[in-house]
Write a structure and sequence with these properties.
With about 120 residues, this protein is an all-alpha fold. The protein has a single domain, classed as Serine Threonine Protein Phosphatase 5, Tetratricopeptide repeat. About 80% of the residues lie in helices and about 0% in strands. The radius of gyration is 17 Å and the shape is elongated. The N and C termini lie far apart (about 55 Å).
Length: about 120
């Protein structure tokens, strides 16, 4: 965190922006491992602000969004990763999980609505 803060506020020189994007992306990966999905999504988003084509940050944000049950946004991030790198195993696996979670959520919603209007 100290390294990210030391880079300073925008606008940043290109080299510093690249470094800061890498630091944010790395911090997001660590936060995911620690189970801090919201913080990971925030840092991955900051990395993407600095470098929109950063696949690691996009993947991390997708995984974090899935953990927070923001399934549509997670799907968008993971599909973007797969468009850029079609063989990305992690993105393929996570996208499958997101689709499964969305199906389960939709089934539960349909059941609840059915009970409500029965």
């Amino acid at each position: 965190r100290a390294a990210v803060a030391a880079a300073g506020p925008p606008p940043l020189p290109p080299a510093v922006g690249e470094l800061k994007a890498e630091l944010h992306a790395g911090l997001a990966e660590v936060q995911l491992r620690l189970g801090q999905a919201a913080a990971a999504a925030g840092n991955a988003g900051k990395a993407l602000e600095l470098r929109p084509d950063h696949l690691g940050a996009r993947y991390a944000r997708g995984v974090a969004r899935a953990a927070m049950m923001d399934l549509e946004a997670a799907r968008e991030d993971l599909v973007a990763v797969l468009r850029a790198r079609p063989g990305h195993a992690g993105a393929s696996r996570e996208l499958g999980r997101v689709r499964d979670k969305a199906r389960q959520r939709d089934t539960q919603l349909a059941t609840r609505l059915g009970k409500m209007f029965a």
